Predict the structure.
Amino acid sequence: MFLTTGAGGGVGGVSRLVAEGLLARGQRVRATVHRDDERAEALRTLGAEVLVGDLTDPLHVSAALDGVSRMFFSMGVSPDYLEATAVVCAAARERPGLEVLVNMSQMTVSQMTATSTEESRQQRLHWLAEHVIDWSAVPRVHIRPTVFLDNPLFTLLAAGPIRDRGVLALPFGSGRTSPIAASDVAEVVMAVLLAPHDHVGSVYELTGPATLDLDGLADQYARALDRPITAERLPYDQWADQLAGSPLTPHVQQHIATMARLHREDRYNRSTTDVERITGRTPRTVEQYVRERRDLFDGRRDDRP
């Protein structure tokens, strides 16, 4: 039995994609969700056993782990992240037969120390969560993706200026980035879950296929949308003021604002081949990702590969 947590939400829906992929391969999947909504019902329709609950609730987590041999631990951006990690690890230690806990982390963790202060509160929680998992001695694999293409930076917050003015307006300065699609992260997670003994103890750092500055990103959007898109390097403070007016929670806003600042400081200029090495396939380009979501950026859709 496979367990995927956070299958009802999170940026890009990696846990949902993992659950769907495992079900398509004929595996038994239990998925935990925070709310019983249409996303939960869709998983049931596909054949998943769906549990509704809270990852900070020991009773819920213990019930979710019953009979599970392989687990993907993922949770949306939340101030409760570290508590949930501790509860999951405590419950996992009491359950015999767990072959692997695959942990969704973040690549920025690799640049952090016990006393670093430049990162977001969420990134600090991920750094601490990795240590809690390691201290628990549960057989584990840490998955550290770089920024997701599904992140609001490249979708929700980018879409308006692209639609209205044909500009990709972000405060990245001259910083470079290699964003990755959630679907590629999900493929790596599935590969690990399906053959855990080849991976236990590993840390995988996942990036897209190329590091791009803002002009390079704009060119990828232009190719996908078949129209000119130019880069606009916003002053950080101006952009942060705009972010403050978004419907995102303060915790999420602080996380995204920090990610933008770290982009500006070139902290996302990183590249690995882990996706291709584990899955045998090159990760998706920005162009491919945007082309599949043309409706978000200009109301049209294009399903070319």
